[in-house]
Amino acid sequence: MAPMRTFEDLVAEAAAVDVSGWDFGWLDGRATEEHPPWGYLRLLSQRLPRATAALDVDTGGGEVLSEVPSFPARMCVTEGWAPNAERAKALLGPRGVEVVRTPPDSGLPFPDGSFDLVVSRHPVRPDWPEIARVLAPGGHYFAQHVGPGSALELTEYFLGERSGPDGRDPHTEAAQAEAAGLRVEDLRVARCRMEFFDIGAVVYILRKCVWWVPDFSVDRYTDALRRMDAQIRADGSFVAHSTRHLFDLRRA
């Protein structure tokens, strides 16, 4: 086996690579994440063709939705970050998908009852009243959310011990959804193993998932990165865990 590249080489490469969009292909062979047991993409691919009109909230660059083979007659997506919205237009526009950029806290720019299915994979902050409003009576919200304390080991390595809720508890979200007029049909939770096999993978993911270490930069955390690099070389990987929950909610 070839020796691992130097700390400097790994960090410089990861600090320079484009991290826009939600394609994590750059991490192939450098990091792994166990998938939740329910198979969100498979379930989404079954549901979307049965809908009449569907909306994907916080689509990112459209990478997940692009893997669905068949869409309903009307398929719309929203995305708040301009570079991702442009990527989604390029990826999904040729398939007839309407891509709408939505500034933060601006609501969903659609009339009441516009969709019989609203979906999302890892929404930033679900706006439950808006989701309920744009759903037609009997319509469903089907989504995979990031759960509480996701990648906590990674966050605490750089920021120290965290305490208190982070606002992503599935039962809290379920109560908020019900208060907005949605009924829980199904709720599943999972804790999934993550491994990072070189320090470049860690730099990349912290640049991409900026909420894990909000003030992250290579210069600011060089000493911690060097310590983690030594740990990875000694142990073979750095291990963390993601948490996920799956919602199936119905509007009365």
From TrEMBL:
InterPro entries: 23S_rRNA_MeTrnsfrase_RlmA, Methyltransf_11, SAM-dependent_MTases_sf. Residues 55-142 form the Methyltransferase type domain. Keywords: Methyltransferase, Transferase. Pfam families: Methyltransf_11. One of its GO terms (biological process) is methylation. Transmembrane segments: none annotated. GO terms for molecular function: methyltransferase activity. CDD domains: AdoMet_MTases (cd02440). Gene3D superfamilies: Vaccinia Virus protein VP39. PANTHER family: METHYLTRANSFERASE, METHYLTRANSFERASE TYPE 11 DOMAIN-CONTAINING PROTEIN. This is Methyltransferase domain-containing protein. It comes from Saccharothrix mutabilis subsp. mutabilis. The lineage of its organism: Bacteria, Bacillati, Actinomycetota, Actinomycetes, Pseudonocardiales.
